[in-house]
Write a structure and sequence with these properties.
The protein has helices at about 15-25, 70-80, 95-105, 120-125, 130-140, 150-160, 210-220, 240-245, 265, 285-290, 305, 320-335, 335-355, 355-370; strands at about 1-5, 30-35, 50-55, 85-90, 115-120, 145-150, 170, 195-200, 225-230, 255-260, 270-275, 295-300, 315. By secondary structure, it is α/β, with parallel strands linked by helices. It has a seven-stranded parallel beta sheet with strand order 3-2-1-4-5-6-7, sandwiched between helices. Strands 10-9-8-11-12-13 form a six-stranded parallel beta sheet, with helices on both faces. The two termini are about 15 Å apart.
């Protein structure tokens, strides 16, 4: 098949999955064309069957804001025609599904199919805004296929927009050969002493991630177990969280690493991963941690309980319950055998359900289903 993929190329779960999916499809012989304003951050190198098409926005004095969406729709149509695409697979409902709708109707002589993958904030944040509600709903309903990364997100979408559109749940996946635990794969020795346990969180530092809960929990846990907290990412909460660390006197224990390309090399030598978000449609970073054999403590929100099995691959706590998180964290960090058992079970759950070899064929089957009615 000839497949066009559009995503946000910056750091984030939707862009990561889109890039990983495109690379996996290319390895299986499909021709994959990425259409975006820059190369997706997980698309680290060109390989056979992968093409990138840059969207350029024309500067013009009358445009207060550059019309990226129109440029994207036009580029989608051009690529679809020139590369004879069968499918435009867009990640995020707005604006990408909307642009794909325009591109499809520009190519009236070609019955190109649009598949929209919903990732979370395109529904729970952007789509729920009154100014975007109608166009988000329209873009979903006008797609020939719609997928969601969790049952929770599917339910939220159908309830919020009051639609009966068939939404296929295809979970996020991970390259289990890259995200693994292994000798020589570790990359945090400059920040952590040999006798310290390692707690990690990776995100875009938005308020919904509740990073303050992580820092306050760490303040409790470090009194019982020698450990360091590594915070990976950038976003609006970084400066406030640095202030909180100073207020609590934790500067010697909390390390802000910023955005990192090699997250796998950090996770592969971590002991515990935290994701206490109040809203999390799936939790890709938690999946990547589990693939590295790292137990996860997550919140009872969205799709996280579909990923983390309480007491088996980690723990699920109520949103904002710092004491509960601290208890579970202490149990895991203080007992190496127990933590390693939970970590092995986490890795096995990923291998059984969320490995690329298990999930990518689901996309291929869905493509075929949409193409052939």
């Amino acid at each position: 098949m000839n497949i066009g993929i559009t995503c946000y190329p910056t750091y984030g779960g939707s862009g990561a999955i889109a890039a990983e999916l495109g690379q996996a499809l290319a390895r299986k012989g499909h021709k994959v064309h990425f259409v975006s304003y820059s190369i997706p951050f997980r698309l680290q190198e060109y390989s056979q069957n992968i093409y990138f098409h840059n969207v350029e926005v024309m500067p013009y004095p009358l445009f207060k804001y550059p019309p990226y969406t129109l440029a994207l729709a036009a580029k989608m149509a051009d690529v679809a025609l020139e590369a004879e695409l069968d499918i435009l697979h867009v990640h995020y409902a707005v604006p990408h599904a909307t642009c794909a709708f325009l591109a499809r109707h520009m190519l009236r002589d070609r019955d190109i199919k649009v598949i929209t993958t919903l990732h979370g904030t395109d529904i729970t944040l952007v789509g729920s805004d009154k100014s975007f509600y109608r166009i988000t709903r329209f873009s979903i309903e006008e797609s020939q296929g719609v997928t969601a990364v969790s049952e929770s997100l599917k339910r939220d979408t159908q309830s919020l927009f009051e639609i009966d559109t068939d939404i296929r749940v295809i979970p996020n996946f991970v390259d289990v050969n890259r995200f693994r635990r292994g000798d020589g794969h570790c990359d945090i020795s400059n920040f952590v002493d040999d006798d310290e346990k390692v707690i990690v969180h990776v995100s875009n530092f938005r308020p919904v991630k509740r990073i303050g809960d992580i820092i306050r929990m760490y303040a409790e846990v470090r009194t019982r177990v020698k450990c360091k907290l590594l915070l990976v990412g950038e976003g609006p909460e970084r400066i406030p969280m640095q202030e909180l660390v100073r207020e609590l006197g934790l500067q010697d224990g909390v390390v802000f690493l910023g955005e990192q390309e090699g997250v796998d090399r950090i996770l592969s030598c971590s002991d515990l991963y935290l994701l206490p978000s109040e809203q999390e449609s799936f939790g890709l970073s938690a999946l990547e941690a589990m693939s590295c054999g790292v137990p996860v403590i997550g919140a009872n929100a969205g799709g996280l309980p579909e990923l983390v099995r309480h007491g088996v691959t980690g723990f699920i706590t109520e949103v904002g319950d710092i004491d509960q998180m601290a208890r579970h964290a202490t149990e895991l960090l203080a007992d190496d055998d127990y933590r390693q058992t939970i970590g092995r079970q986490a890795r096995q759950r990923v291998l059984d359900n969320f490995a690329d070899e298990a999930v990518v064929p689901q996309y291929e089957a869905y493509y075929d289903e949409v193409l052939h009615g």
